[in-house]
Amino acid sequence: MDDQLDADTARAIALSLQDTGRPQQADVIDVDDDKDDQYEEDMRLAIELSKRESSSKPMPTQSQAQSPAPGPATGRASQPAAAFLSERAQLERERLERLKRTRPDIHRETTAIVVDSDDDNDDDTDEEERARSAKRQHISSSSSHASARRANPSSSSTRNAPISIPSASTSTSTSRSASAAARARPGVVPSTSGRGSGQGSSRTAVFWDGELRQTANMHVDKQKDTRPVFRLTEIISPKEDIEFAIVSAFCWNFAWMYQMFDHKTAVIAVDHNPRGEASIKAILPNWIRTTPFLRGGFGCMHMKFMLLFYRTGRLRIVVSTANLIEYDWRDIENTVWVQDIPKLPSPVAADPKQENFASAMVRVLHGVNVAPALANLLSNDHPNLPLQRIEHLRTHWDWSKVKAALVPSIAGKHEGWPKVILSGHTCLMKSLQDMGGKTPSDKELVLECQGSSVGNYSTQWLNEFYCSARGVSAQTWLDEKKARRAKLPFPPIRILFPTARYVRESVLGEAGGGTMFCRRNQWAGKNFPRDLFHQTKSKRGRVLMHSKMVLGTFRDKRGGLDRHARSPARSDSEDEDDAGADSGEKDKKLVGWMYVGSHNFTPSAWGTLSGSAFNPTLNITNYELGVVLPLHSQEEIDRVACWERPPEKYVSGRDEPWIQSESAAFVEEG
User: Does the CA dihedral 191-196-199-201 come out positive or negative?
Assistant: First the structure.
């Protein structure tokens, strides 16, 4: 699969650099994906072409590291770049003509959109393999001709098909009106202009208090699209002011992202490795790709975040639900949280025992193998990066205005309470306790879980997650017999997932459902919680949502629901704990909280507890990352939820979830 990545990267970069200044349409050139020599040749030619294209602003070269040990890669003699591209383009045109003659249905009235799978369905080998392989989804402008192709789950590689990529940018040009000093100085926030997807813009605004927005989308109902949105070009802005970036996603279009940054900016790209091997590799001038370890190759590196270090000293933190591909920032709806962090006048000592946003981010960066990539950059062409050691995040920047809590899931086995509460749903529990978000003793917690992938749910896991979501320690829960836990009723959780009918009636129709995952054997399971499913509908019209959110709200106890509040998940001393929590609330009582990030509502993402109350074990399959935000009013709840509330419950006998594999729009490659 690394050969596939190398070939895809070389092909995309060559085209990207050739087409700089022509963002409207790009023909993708096939490159033999089985030859490392061809990859090295193509990469060298792409770099040469990049130098020619940017002659007015020469781009420094970087040694091409193939391992954590620094060292330059050797070059090879080659044909001129122009001749190479011309020959490749001619071969591609001939192949396209042959394909049109043999498969006219693929090309007739069709606009092709690249879609990389973001499925993290748990405990299913085929689904995990499908999640690792890039999907090519063709969306037709006519519903009668809509078709989509996805990788064969049983195959270890995918065949490249001709793909036409729409506009390389999803936003308008970024304003440069604010000065660098204004951008970096706390309290000075350049104004934003306009609202909605057409005009709502962060421009060069700085978000010292944090900001949560939906992404711009070309398919939303303009009359319903009334709030400010984020565009990727506005988040990574002004790009010439960014000195260093650490960027993570499950799915990448490296050529597209390479254009988002100044070519002189050093970038560490955190990516998923299908084999689960920890590795670093120089893939572009000033870019290093790093991948973390996955046990047995299972699970995925699913985190979506950015750390943007500006020359003024400012640090921008971005936590997102979107992959770094055009489709996620144009055709489906995603959510992004952004906060800017000022640099301290001088470093301060950090308490190694204190847990906060910065300490959690340090653990995340170590967990996803950023440290060796950073060392490589510092040892080669970038010795003066603003981040010299990952631990400096805690000592060199001022995190005092951050109200959000960072909630990571680090893939692996975590044993003992000190480690268990630093990851997964138990980290969510600890974060809620710290921010005063524990469910009051006279209230009941109701969860609305919005995502793009359905997990393998049992009453035991749902109650386990619900226990943590209430801010209650799982010690008493783990001491109960497993057989008793397995017989508990389902907690008050609403699982939000689109129905098949809703997907068909969405703007892109069935062919637009390529990033929503539920399996028939899940839905038909004997003990599957079908009664918890609710329809999810975007507030902005007939678009599908890739946003991953968990909304927790408190309501007065009523009727039989009190029985669950006294379930084994509730500690006998909880009333006393509530009294202590009330006195420690920092501002005012919360009415709820919102999680936003990469976690789908699945055991793979949030983890599964085992062991005893004395020595618990948390097993997590994926690397995930998100933030929890405190909510103080009904107005805040209504503002942050991206779906229509209250969500409509599935009607038995009428509504079923969207199941991609049963759609005529999807066919496996033979």
Answer: positive
| Amino acid in the structure at residue 214 | Q
Tokens of 456: 């393998």
Contact 139, 110 (CB under 8 A): yes
Classify residue 584 by burial, with Cβ atoms within 10 Å: 0-12, 13-18, 19+. Answer: exposed
Count of other CB atoms within 10 angstroms of residue 226: 12
Each residue's pLDDT tens digit, 162-216: 222 233 333 333 333 333 333 333 333 333 333 333 333 445 799 999 999 999 9
| Contact status, residue 605 vs residue 624, Cβ threshold 8 Å | yes
Which pTM does this prediction carry?
0.75
Q: How many Cβ atoms are within 10 Å of 449's Cβ, its own excluded?
A: 26
Per-residue b or e along 530-540, where b marks 16 or more CB atoms closer than 10 Å to that residue's CB: bebbbbbbbbb
- Cβ proximity of 332 and 115 under 8 Å: no
CA distance linking residue 421 with residue 617, whole number of Å: 10
Strand partners, 27: 164
pLDDT digits (tens, 9 = 90+) for 54-67: 444 443 333 333 33
Check residue 529 and report its DSSP letter.
-
Q: Other CB atoms closer than 10 Å to residue 345's CB: what's the count?
A: 8
Bridge partners (DSSP) listed for residue 287: 267, 284
